[in-house]
Structures are given as structure tokens and as C-alpha cells.
Amino acid sequence: MLDLILLGSGGGMPMPNRHLSSLLLSYQGRKILIDCGEGTQVAMRKMNTGFKSIDIICITHFHGDHIFGLPGLLSTIGNSDRTEPIIIIGPHGLKAVLKGILITTYLPYDIYIIENSETSLGFILDSKLLKLNEFQGNGKNDMIIDTIELEHSSPCVGYSFYFSRAPKFLIEKASLNNVPQDIWKRLQKGENVFYNGELYEPNMVLGEERRGIKLSYITDSRPVDAIPEFIKGSDLFVCEGTYGSDEDLDKAMKNFHMTFSEASKLASKGEVKELLLTHFSTSIENPEEYKEDAKKIFENTIIGYDGLEKTIRYQ
Amino acid sequence: MLDLILLGSGGGMPMPNRHLSSLLLSYQGRKILIDCGEGTQVAMRKMNTGFKSIDIICITHFHGDHIFGLPGLLSTIGNSDRTEPIIIIGPHGLKAVLKGILITTYLPYDIYIIENSETSLGFILDSKLLKLNEFQGNGKNDMIIDTIELEHSSPCVGYSFYFSRAPKFLIEKASLNNVPQDIWKRLQKGENVFYNGELYEPNMVLGEERRGIKLSYITDSRPVDAIPEFIKGSDLFVCEGTYGSDEDLDKAMKNFHMTFSEASKLASKGEVKELLLTHFSTSIENPEEYKEDAKKIFENTIIGYDGLEKTIRYQ
């Protein structure tokens, strides 16, 4: 099960009635934040999310509306008594940018920076923290993050998050394989167990792999060709829709953004379950006005708003 | 005449119901901003102040609640089509801090940095901009900024602003000195005029110097001995009152802040006309509760709140 809150739905500049686009994922009590514009910490306070349990922050790109809230948020997390490291993921240049914008900031915890990752990143829930899996490629991952290069006026990456689902425990299979009941729990957790001179493996008690939850996040970008494959089958596809009307296509092309209908075409091609639009231009007062432009192309479209909450369950 | 808006009245962290301490002065249509925490630009939008006419930004110190809004505000000013330079004044280290926090920020105007100024800074209204007077110490200044070193957990300066008042134009004196009416306006502006073979000087038509408006701004600091002399006779003394109750004196001392009564003692010693308290701890929900603690010592005390507006007129 994955919970999420759209902390803000705006693009460009923070406004009194709309926070900047940022998404907070909550998985088994641990949090992943995507982007952090000026005021993201204020949105988190409004929505009572707490600060201490953020283990990972993903940055799409270095425009102010996606990063200027980072020094303040990281300071506030420091005030929440966190001492465990935080992982920050972002495009090429992340180290230099963080060094710059954090010049005045003392933090009582370490930051582990992953810049321009070209491989899938596996994470495990270890001692209640979401940690990078040391055994990348092998072993079981609780979560996998992938990135895609986007097309914006600054180097920019999109993200996909895959949350694994544990296979079912099958009592019949355990009995059939004569597995002693004492070690069922450990096998269910994925451990190999040597017990009374015999080796027992998890597949002696577990069923087939089960599909997890996939969420993808694309902002800011033009609709590049590789996106449909990258977001393929997502339970939720969060995508920028900076401009509502097709009449603003010229602006969208000039500023390397998308219109609602461009985003919904991607959702359709990517065969996702649901599309959530965000990152609305400050010129759009009520994005709901353009809802039909998106729904004509992709029916399961939600127009984002600050504070939108959602739970995605395993199928 | 000087107009001001208290954009925020909080300290430490930006809160949903209280912006961080920041003051916006408006003098003859030009603006001076003091401090810029995360969300200051949002407060400015709420209060419809506009962005383009900010000529000077004064920074007290480099703690996040006083500077993390700067990259965003400067970007937004850039979006307002400003091309004239902005002057930023602050303590030692300002250049390095700005270089760091603005690492990702492109601005379509120049920034002129004044770091750790040890002398009075004179400004003139030139072509409708508040500009540094090239003739420091000489010539007429429309505004003078002075700084004082404070006692905080980071290098910190306080500010005083003196807005000059033009002397009165005296028709009787002009007639007595046989000054031709054609050149009255130019003399009134402070020019020396050579006319029909004679030199005329402003003092041939003007009365005595008149007292201008003095505003002083102290945050964050312990109440150091030099403050009363620095703020002497201010029309308005804006001062931090991080803690309301005297019972929090220990905290105030430990964190290098002041209680309400410490601030009001300074106001009394400095013989100011009015005290405006700001920079309230996030632990104080309603600072009005502690109003009497301050008023017992200094009657003319105002408890600040976001959006407080005030006009100070020449006496």
C-alpha cells in the first residue's frame, strides 16, 4: 500500500493560493519527497505530514520552483531531531548545486548524494529506514527507483518508483516441503535458514512473485518519445500539465512544458491506470476548466490540487 | 513620508499562519526590503506590494529564516522585467553567501553588494531609483543607512534608516534676496544656479534644516549596550521579541534573542517614539498575550502581525 499527498500543484512561482509542485510518498511509514520549491515545508505543516521520516528526496531539476525550498526543509528536518542520513537523488550537477545552496546550512545528519544515476536504484527497508540496497541487482528490493532523461530548458530527469509486494505464504507448500513451523517467519522474510542440519529456502514456503505498485513522475518536460515505455503500466502517472488549453501549445513548446492533452496522450500510450496532472502555470486560475481536454484523450485523469491525498493498494 | 508593511512577524521557521520576519519600506515609490526568509515573496503577493521597485535589500544575518527566500524573490523580481541593479547590504561574508545560494539563479539585472560597511551609506533618488550617492559624506542624501554590530549566534547587523526632509521654501527670503522667480524651482531642488550673470544658492530661498524620519531595525540579538545610542530618537524602532514572557529569559540568553521586556527597555533608553515587536518564536501562538509585559516598560509598544501597515509622517 502506498499513500501520497500532492503538497503543491503550481509551477513557476509560489502563490498565496497554490504551493509549488511537490509530491510526498509514504511507504510503510517512511517518506519519499519529490521536488521541493519555496514553501514546500509550509505545505507539509498545513497537511501535518511530519518531517522526521523523510529518507529520500528526488529532485527533477534545478529550477528555483523545484529546489528553493530545500535549504529550509533540510534545516527543519534537522530541528526534528533526525540524525539518520538522507539520500538526495538528482541530475548531473546535484553535488555542486547542494554545496552552493546549503552554504549557510548546518545539518545534524549526513546527506548521501546520488547524481545522474544511469542504473536502477534498489532500496530496502532496514531498521525502519529506506536504505540503498548494497546488493544492487541481486537480492530483494523493497523499492526500485528508475530515472529517465527529459527535455526541458535545464537538465531534468523523470522518476519511476516500484514498490515490491511480498509473495503469498503458502501453508500447503510449507507442509508439502516438510518445513518446520519454527522457521516459517524467517523464510517468509526472505531469509535462507539452516535448521537441524538442513537448508531451507524461501521458495519452499512462498508463492509466485506478485505485482507491486508503480508510480511515475514526469515534470518539467516536453512529451519525449521514451516516456510511454518508461511509465508503462503505472498505477499512477503524475505528469506536468503546465498549460490547460491546446491553444497554448506554442507556449508549451517554447518553454519546454506540456499541455493537458499532451500529458493525457502520454498516459494513454503508456497504458497507465490513472493520470494526475500538476505543475499548473500561474496564469491558470482554475485548472478544472480544462479537465475535459484531458479526459477526451484519457478518461482516468485527475486534476491535481494542493493537499490531494490518495492511497494506492496492491491489486 | 514613509510607508511600511510588516510582511512577516515570525522567527525560526515559516508557518502556515505566520510568515518570517521581513519589513518592506516604501519611500517616494521606491522600496527597501529588510530580510527575506522562505515565503517573503508569497507575503508580498498577498499584500499586493509589487516586486519591480525594490532598489535595496538589507540582510541582518545568514540564518535561513532571514535569507532562504532571497533566491526566489530575486528570480521573481527578474520576471517583473526589472533591469536596473539591486543593492544588497549585509554582514561580512555576504558575497560568498550570495554566490552560494544563487548558484542556479539567472538574473536579468546586476547585484551590487555592500558587505560589512563600517561607514554611513548615503543614497539619492536619481532618475526615480534609490542609488548609492557617489559623494559619500558630502552632498545631500535622500536617505542614510547606518549599521550596528549585534550579538547573535552568527555575525549579525542592525540597521537604521534616516530619510531626509527638504527645508521649507520661503517666499519672503527669496524676495529679500532678489531671487528671480524663474529659478525658484531649481534652487528648491538644491541646485546652484548661474542666471543673468549672478550666482544663486539654495540657502537664498530655503529655511533651516528640518528633521527627517528615523527608523531602526534590530534582529536577531541580545540587547547590547550600544543599541540605545544607535536607535536614539527613532520615529519607529522595530525590534525582535522572540520570547514574550520574562520566564523565557534563559532561553533568550541561550539562543541570543530577547524577551518583550528586554526590547521595551531598549526602546525606553533609546527614547524612541514607538516600538514595533516582531520575530516571535513559533512557540508563541498569540504574542498579544504578552503585550502588557512590554507596555509596562514602554507604553508605545505595538505587537507586530503579518500585513501590519503604517505610515510615518514628517513632524
Structure description:
Two copies of one chain form a homodimer. Chain A has ten helices and 17 strands. Chain A has 315 residues and is α/β, with parallel strands linked by helices. The first copy, chain A, folds into two domains: 270 residues, Metallo-beta-lactamase, Chain A, CATH 3.60.15.10; 30 residues, no CATH class. Chain A is globular and about 70 Å long. The model of chain A has no long low-confidence stretch (mean pLDDT 95). At the A-B interface, helix 1, helix 3 and helix 4 of A face helix 1, helix 3 and helix 4 of B.
Could you give the topology of this structure?
Two copies of one chain form a homodimer.
Chain A: E1 2-8, E2 22-27, E3 30-34, H1 40-46, E4 54-58, H2 64-67, H3 70-79, E5 86-90, H4 94-101, E6 111-115, E7 121-126, E8 129-132, E9 143-149, E10 157-165, H5 171-176, H6 184-188, E11 193-195, E12 198-200, E13 210-218, H7 227-231, E14 236-240, H8 249-254, H9 260-269, E15 275-278, H10 291-295, E16 301-303, E17 308-312
Parallel strand pairs in A: 3-4, 4-5, 5-6, 13-14, 14-15, 15-16
Antiparallel strand pairs in A: 1-2, 1-17, 2-3, 7-8, 7-9, 9-10, 10-13, 11-12
Radius of gyration of chain A: 21 Å
CATH architecture of the largest domain in chain A: 4-Layer Sandwich
Q: For the terminal residues of chain A, how far apart are their CA atoms?
A: 10 Å
Number of domains of chain A: 2
Q: Calculate the mean pLDDT score of chain A and round it.
A: 95
Pfam families (chains A, B): Anti-Pycsar_Apyc1
Catalytic activity (chains A, B): Endonucleolytic cleavage of RNA, removing extra 3' nucleotides from tRNA precursor, generating 3' termini of tRNAs. A 3'-hydroxy group is left at the tRNA terminus and a 5'-phosphoryl group is left at the trailer molecule
Binding site for Zn(2+) 2 (chains A, B): 65-66, 220, 279
Family (chains A, B): Belongs to the RNase Z family.
